[in-house]
Amino acid sequence: MIEALHHIQIAMPKGQEDIARDFYCGILGFVEVPKPDVLQGRGGVWFEAGQVRLHLGVEDPFVPAKKAHPGFQVASLDKVVRELRAHDLEVSGGDDLPDLKRVYIADPFGNRIELLELL
């Protein structure tokens, strides 16, 4: 039935698109992509990095996802952690698994994000 993961959507507060851009583009290295015209009035913002598509949709009232989260694979977790800390972001360690090591961060809205490196 399912062929591939097309995109991930997480929620964000209304009117915070510039904050999302600063974080997801400026720190995590995503590139903003235009939303279809029919969806422009809803707010939110869409990003891509490689084959990863991330949509941030406005939720009102907003509640951050504290457990559910996207897991983004990176080439060098140590390098990413240094970069995150250089931006004064709190990085919490996750339990490493036999085939990967991982950490967690929160986006500016409090949504949980996992960053992982395959071993």
Short structural summary:
Helix content is 15%, strand content 33%. It has 119 residues and is of the alpha/beta class. It has a single domain (8-118), classed as 2,3-Dihydroxybiphenyl 1,2-Dioxygenase, domain 1, CATH 3.10.180.
Question: What features would you highlight for this structure?
Answer:
15% helix; VOC domain-containing protein; Glyas_Bleomycin-R_OHBP_Dase; 119 residues; alpha/beta; Glyas_Fos-R_dOase_dom; single chain; 2,3-Dihydroxybiphenyl 1,2-Dioxygenase, domain 1
Task: Give a description of the structure.
This protein is an alpha/beta fold. It has one domain: 2,3-Dihydroxybiphenyl 1,2-Dioxygenase, domain 1. It is 15% helix and 33% strand. The chain has two helices and eight strands. The protein has helices at 17-24, 77-86, and strands at 8-12, 31-33, 45-49, 52-58, 71-73, 92-93, 100-106, 112-118. A four-stranded mixed beta sheet has the order 1-4-3-2, with helices on one face. Strands 5-8-7-6 form a four-stranded mixed beta sheet, with no helix packed on it. A hairpin with a 6-residue loop joins strand 6 (92-93) and strand 7. It is globular, with a radius of gyration of 15 Å. The model has no long low-confidence stretch (mean pLDDT 96).
